[in-house]
Amino acid sequence: MALPLALLVLAAATGADPVVEALRLPVQTFTLDNGIEVAVHPDPIQQLVAVHLLVRAGSADDPPGAEGTAHLVEHLLGSTGAGREAVLGALGARANAWTDPDWTAFHAVVPPGAVNLALDLEAGYLAGFPSTLDPEVLAREAAVVRMEAAQDAASARGDDARVLASLLWPARHPYAHPVLGPPTGEGDPWSLASVGAFYQSRYAPSDLTLVLAGAVELEAARDLARRTLGALPARAPGARAQADPPPLDREIRAAHLADVADRTLYVAWRTAPAGHADGPALEVAARLLAGGRGGRLDEPLVHRTAAARRVAAWADARPQGSAFGIRIQAEEGVPLAEILEVVDREVLRLAASGPSEAEMVRVRGALRGAWLRAVEPIDDRAALLGRCLAESGDPDCLAVGLDARLAVTSDDVRRVVDTWLPLDRRILLCVVPASEPHAALPGSERVATPALRQAAPVRLAPAEPERPSYEGEPFVPRLPRVEERLLPAGGRLLMVRRPGLPLVRIEATVLHDGFPVDEALRLAGALLDNGTRRRDAGRLAADLDRMGAVLETGTGPSGPWVAVEAPSDAVSPALDLLSEVLLHPVFPAREVRRVAGAWRTDVANALRSPGRILAAAEVRAIYPADHPLGTLADARDPHRWTRARVGRAWHDALRHGRLLVVAAGDLEASTLLPQVSARLGGVGGDRISSSVPAPPEPVQGPRVVLVDDPGSSEARIVLSLPAPGRGDPDLLCARLVAWMLGGGFDSRLHRRLREAEGLVYAVQATVHAWPGHGRIRVLTRTSADRAARVARLLVDEVGRLGSPEGLPASEIAAARASILRGEAETAGTLAGLAGRLGEEAAVGGGRDTWERDVRRIAEADPTSVRASARRICRPEAAVLVILADRDLVEPALEAEEVFPTDLWSARRALEGAPSSPAAGLPAM
To answer: What distance in Å separates the CA atoms of residue 593 and residue 639, rounded to the nearest whole number?
Structure first.
């Protein structure tokens, strides 16, 4: 393995690195007459088109006193009239928008036949705004923006970034306020005039960059862009203030007292602005400090002494000021002063002597793999292309960017750390439990955070958006050709060749007998990356980094799994590592105690995590004590888990489980088969299929559980319905039903709860299926005073969807188109390909199972979908769990005729429920 790695390092040094060359994507750029920059990137491998419109307008441009304006305009442009996201969603597209400090992006992934409509919509909204803006829509979206900001601030660690930004930047600096806008205020500062003025100054065509990537042809894209966005009138862009502050002139120590169970230390500096020559070296320094196992902070803090649970570092380069940050989450009882001593020592070491050449070889390899994986999804590729083109104007900007980072030397790192990261000019922010102010660093000043205020809901008349259509046959994704082989001992190997990017993913699952998976085996899955008999954890991580590979491990419903993703030129050594991890793992006692201890800390945090309390209450409300999903063992006592017990569980699984290997990417099946057979062919065995029994349904009406959360101004709500299990053909119709309930911006609950009544920011409906049993879950969050109304509407909408007249053919067609687009997106990434094929094979499916399911969805007729909806959407079978302050919601629940069957405290909701993070139903 040493020779290929040496050749790769030499290739990088001479500019001939194959990964760098792969990032020289075929991109054609041109400028429309009005100033809009357009980039077209055809990729024949892709089946969808990513439409990415980037605007040089962000929260840094918010007018003083009207923070959140850029974010509000993003909402308004996506929600005007029938709604951009809803209109595209009716055609099966996935549309979204986001704002950051410097940019606003409007993004959609659409079938090729809908590109025309997507650009027509963008052009229409931009041309008509703000003259077409309705005051009611402005009021509604202002309330939604406030709601989103309040929910973000109320989430776990939601205040951390806001507090850190307020310390890092001067009071009036463009980056000192949160992107979403403040969650509090006596009144909204926005009017039609002020929103229009912002749009006129920041949305000039010359501030726009359009990227079309995927299944698109250059000439057709050029004509389409000219006809749509090219028709916008040109106008002069507004001036943008420049406020690049100097480095800090002193050390600032602050303490933020929060509702958390652990202690976190943030260390931050102001650094070189975007485009500065030192930027790449600062990024390399961040990866050296906290780049996983072997990082200069990870190793001493997480693995050697178990002083910290997690370490992260980042270099955030922005036009008006950049920052370098480190975050360390301390283990229980470890003083933050001890954590800071290690940080200071390692920063000083880097500044004094720089990294070793072995470290530089490792970080270059890791960068190669990371950049290659970052551009694999077509939507991420379009977003990255848009950003780097808007900043540099160079179509080869991705390759140039990676090349610049690979060229960083040890002396470059030493110099930038010495220059930009002085220990006497930085921010030290301690986030500690409110009951432990003494846990902050000595000399820390307390940072106050304002109380949260929800904006009043703005109710509009419910309206059915016009559902457009495009000419031509409905989009049905083509699925890849799958080759299947039996391994010598009976395991299965599925292979998919997908040329294009030089990247390969290989996943190996040990199919497990029985459900649920034993907790000792879950722990083994979490510990598989801690070394083998031939390589300790440090060497394993170093070898992965040098070849640009990532190793992922875990345990799913079918059993423990290991996956490796690597550049094509490193497949053979990456497969060596995967087979070592699978066949010869070691479970160091210290790591067993550390991971089990982390689970215990997660349980302690669960007492403060609304999402975790809600999920635990849901499990208790649905499943009886003797049900497999209701009796999972917990990990509260880390001393229960020993190295011997974990190792025994793993080796029993290898003896009795059946191996399933899925490989996808730039590979040749004829070459890969003998390599996999030689390394993993001895794993076999017989797997006995198991099923999960359905829990009993409520005896009368929906079961309603109210979990009291005293003092909370927010309510979280989950509604759960029985659904078919894995392998059941009716599960496909359940997916359609879930999508129509809350699968996107065009869903019933989104239109009713957000668009019509302004009660929630978002609604999410998903299907969770196990062998023999499944659930549809609908999740949402709102303010406590709105919880009763939201709960009533959830139950009512379920009943409407299940009624004979409640499901028009147009709605079924929209859901079907969205799911088929999602299947094409799944087929567009290696992780999606391998994961989906593995799911099907785990329940006995063959290589054509996925294709059969896609065909069934495409051919699903309204009659069969309506029949499934009637079977599934029965309010009397629902379980509704509400986590909120009892005093605030109980009278309103009675008024809405939503009568709680049970009343629990948060602590009681957690008692007896699964407490391992991987167990039970997922949190919101």
So the answer is: 7
Instruction: Tell me the three state secondary structure of residue 312.
Output: strand
Confidence of residue 472 (pLDDT cuts 50, 70, 90): low
Ramachandran angles phi, psi of 290, nearest 5°:
-140, 75
Phi, psi torsion values for 829, nearest 5 degrees? -130, 150
DSSP 436-500: -GGGSPTTPEE---PPP-PPPP------PPP----SSSPP-PPPPP-EEEE-TTB-EEEEEE--S
Confidence (pLDDT) at 524? 87
Q: Edge to edge, what strands does the sheet with 445-446 contain?
A: 308-316, 322-330, 263-271, 427-433, 252-258, 445-446
- Three-class secondary structure of residue 698 per DSSP: coil
Residue 616 CA to residue 919 CA, distance in Å, equals 10
Q: How far is Cα 550 from Cα 571, in angstroms, rounded to an integer?
A: 12
Q: What is the DSSP string of 386-424?
A: HHHHHHH--TTHHHHHHHHHHT--HHHHHHHHHHH--TT
How many whole angstroms separate alpha carbon 75 and alpha carbon 94?
16
Helix (H, G, I), strand (E, B) or coil at 890: helix
Which pair of tokens denotes residue 517? 């998976």
Q: Which of the 8 DSSP states describes residue 177? A: S
Percent of the chain surpassing pLDDT 70: 89
Exposure of 590 by Cβ count < 10 A (0-12 exposed, 13-18 middle, 19+ buried)? middle
Quote the pTM value.
0.90
The residue count of the chain comes to 924
Query: What is the spatial distance between Cα 62 and Cα 69, in angstroms, rounded to a whole number?
Result: 6
Question: Can you tell me the distance from the alpha carbon of 544 to that of 564, in angstroms, rounded to the nearest whole number?
Answer: 9
Query: Which runs of E-coded beta strand occur in 83-151?
Result: 94-99, 104-110
Cα 228 to Cα 232: distance, rounded to the nearest angstrom: 8
The pLDDT value recorded for residue 542 is 93
* CB atoms inside a 10 Å sphere around CB 10: 11
Q: How confident is the model at residue 187 (pLDDT cuts 50, 70, 90)?
A: low
Closest CA to 382 of 208, 206, 212: 212
Determine whether 66 is exposed, middle or buried from the number of CB atoms within 10 Å of its CB (0-12, 13-18, 19+).
middle
Instruction: Please tell me whether residue 861 adopts helix, strand or coil conformation.
Output: coil
How many Cβ atoms sit within 10 Å of the Cβ of residue 171? 7
CA distances to 92, 285, 295, 418 from 415, in Å? 51, 10, 19, 5
Residue 687 vs residue 510, higher pLDDT = 510
Query: Which DSSP category does 756 fall into?
Result: I
Residue 130, preceding peptide bond in cis (omega within 30° of 0): yes
Q: For residues 242 and 240, what is the distance between their CA atoms, to the nearest angstrom?
A: 6
CA dihedral angle for residue 82, residue 88, residue 90, residue 92, rounded to 10 degrees: -170
Distances (CA, A) of 52 to 32, 38, 387: 16, 10, 10
DSSP state of 112: G
Between the CA of residue 190 and those of 65, 195, 759, what are the distances in Å? 10, 6, 20
Q: Of 732, 714, 778, nearest to 752 (Cα)?
A: 778
- Taking the C-alpha atoms of residue 778 and residue 924, their distance in angstroms, rounded to an integer, is 10
Burial level of 216, CB count in 10 A (0-12/13-18/19+)?
buried
For residues 887 and 227, give the distance between their C-alpha atoms in angstroms, rounded to a whole number.
58
Q: For residue 109, which phi and psi values (nearest 5 degrees)?
A: -115, 115
CB distance 615 to 768 below 8 Å: no
| Residue 609 vs residues 124, 486, 597: alpha-carbon distances, Å | 43, 46, 18
Tell me the average pLDDT across 222-251: 89
